[in-house]
Amino acid sequence: MAERKAVNKYYPPDWDPRKGSANKRVGQHPLRDRAKKLSQGILVIRFELPYNIWCGGCGSHIGMGVRYNAEKSKVGNYYTTPIYKFRMKCHLCDNYFEIQTDPKNHDYVILSGARRKEQRWDPVANEQVVPEDKATQKKLATDPMYKLEHGSDDHQRGKDKVMSLAQIEESRVSMLDDYNLNRKARDMFRTEKKQMKDAAEADRAILERASLNIDLVEESEEDRKLAGLMKYSVTSSYEEKQMEKRKIIELRPIFNTEDSLVPTSLSLSSSPSSSDVSPNQKQIPAAVNQQGDLKSKLSRVLKATFKDPFKSGGKKFFGK
């Protein structure tokens, strides 16, 4: 159907070729609806996006190569090269975006309605062959010394490429022995698998010993250094502390005889004066002093009532 409209195979019987084409006879343009704004300098064409863009209306990503019915119009010239502008509507929303040609930089520029997805790079850094600009070509044609220097640079660049090709060839030859490569890969995988299994067993043992249910991260060099700087002090268990207390109690005498042998006058005279008492001793609470007095009184009463059976030679017990 589109071919029939474009070619115009049908001619009516009353058509006279001396009066013009069939389109002129019926008052139509050969491009039909595409040329409805031709009086404004706008022609509808099929435009293909030169790169990936982001729509400014809906924010959707539109890939390179998507085609639109765009309104093409001429907006200026770069020397003798015309500059064209293309206006099209996003197929996902009602937003319009405009793209313009840039003959100076051999590129397309987005004017409004969208933004470019930056995927540009330097062709020289990407090791691509960059054509010489007009000024360099003119200088090569007119300056023999510059042409000689430029040729030496190309020669050196060619030598570098030969070295790269040799490395590629060496790598290709090393990949021909697929049996040994497969064996080395399997050995490496077995070693890594064993290391991973040992690490998992060690982590599981740590988690069971500490009663934890978390995922342990891998050790780092910084963790090893910190662990080497740490020092641990030996702490006694509860049973060991209880045994030490029992030993102290067993070694303590049953009756304290020191307080009974010391006279009261001597104990009073030997007591330090208030001026000789240190500030720390002045701060002893009264409850502690009362407890000591009660203990000494109780020991004196017991010693006055009972005698030490171990000092009597086993003949006298408790005043008998």
TrEMBL record:
<protein>
    <recommendedName>
        <fullName>Splicing factor YJU2</fullName>
    </recommendedName>
</protein>
<dbReference type="GO" id="GO:0071014">
    <property type="term" value="C:post-mRNA release spliceosomal complex"/>
</dbReference>
<dbReference type="InterPro" id="IPR007590">
    <property type="entry name" value="Saf4/Yju2"/>
</dbReference>
<feature type="region of interest" description="Disordered">
    <location>
        <begin position="263"/>
        <end position="292"/>
    </location>
</feature>
<feature type="region of interest" description="Disordered">
    <location>
        <begin position="1"/>
        <end position="29"/>
    </location>
</feature>
<comment type="similarity">
    <text>Belongs to the CWC16 family.</text>
</comment>
<feature type="compositionally biased region" description="Polar residues">
    <location>
        <begin position="280"/>
        <end position="292"/>
    </location>
</feature>
<dbReference type="GO" id="GO:0005684">
    <property type="term" value="C:U2-type spliceosomal complex"/>
</dbReference>
<dbReference type="GO" id="GO:0000398">
    <property type="term" value="P:mRNA splicing, via spliceosome"/>
</dbReference>
<feature type="compositionally biased region" description="Low complexity">
    <location>
        <begin position="263"/>
        <end position="279"/>
    </location>
</feature>
<dbReference type="Pfam" id="PF04502">
    <property type="entry name" value="Saf4_Yju2"/>
</dbReference>
